[in-house]
Request: fold
Amino acid sequence: MNVVIPVSLGTRSYDIHVGPDLMAEAGRLLKPFAHGPVPVVTDTNVAFLHLDRFLGVLHDAGIAAKPIILDAGEGTKSFAWLERLMPQLLASGVDRGGLIVALGGGVIGDLTGFAAGILKRGVAFAQIPTTLLSQVDSSVGGKTAINVPEGKNLVGVFHQPSIVIADTNMLGTLPRRELLSGYAELVKTAALGNEAYFSWLEAHASDALNGKPEAIVHAVAEACRMKAAIVARDEREAGERALLNLGHTFGHALETATGFSDRLLHGEGVAIGMALAFRLSAKLGLCPQGDVDRLLAHLKATGLPSEIADIPGERPSAEVLIAAMSHDKKAKDGKLIFVLARGIGQTFVSADVPVDAVREVLG
Ligand code: GLY
Reply:
């Protein structure tokens, strides 16, 4: 049932492995990259669930792992934690020909990838994503970053991993809300460019979300396959890669307006953001209402939010959201950038959207 997806980037090419219980294979898969001591960066939650077993399989493969356990939570994606991590990486003895492993969700992957990208001017790293969101999105494609007070992900580098190992059994320990939040990125990948995959999700979402091995492996592998193809064509987001931001202009504004709090997880913002992007596309006469309804029906069927009103607490006003969007790093020359749709699986980037139409869908 295991799937291997190549990411074709010349000398920076690598494979994404997706399968149930790939943890058991991690030693064998990492061995060719592991020269010398291998720091394994993780967080307290993942360490509690998976670290002992992971260290055991590395030990069995003859890999000298050096665990580094950081606090769990978005706050760890910061300069303060980077400053704590760097001396620990240096002390581990890893050198430029060595390997650093990121074992965790998006926060650990983004921080560790960034640290690996700048340590000794670049050390190879491996991604072992443990959340659905990181398995289908953040571990693939080489974007690494930390957050700064000016905004999320504003300091970072492109640094491709040497291998990605997505063990879908690890998703079994995720709280349902976090699993669904990752699922929103999966729906995004289908909605932006693959109607057949979207139809498959409509039929199989509940099997995938309930951890049926074949369904969850296929769901994750298809998202990785699509993302790998986009990244191979546009590694540095000069064009097509921006489609992966479907739902993110609205979603990010909603996250900003709700203070990046527990009221709205990232994927929930993306789900509502996607629904708004499709509604906006219909309002502009680009997308049939039937496709908007189809997207909304799927989000609702899985239990994801699809309306601003689904966010608990006070509703953010259209003006607050528009102001947040104009500070977004995706805004260019004062213009808001949206990914718009002509239908499910057919999207494009537009910097040409009248603010009045945006205000209307937010109202
Ligand atoms: N998460 C969007 C990208 O990797 O481009």
Summary: The chain has a mean pLDDT of 96. The pocket of glycine is lined by residues 137, 141, 143, 241, 244 (CB under 6 Å). The CA atoms of residues 195 and 345 lie 5 Å apart. The chain has two domains: 3-173, 176-362.
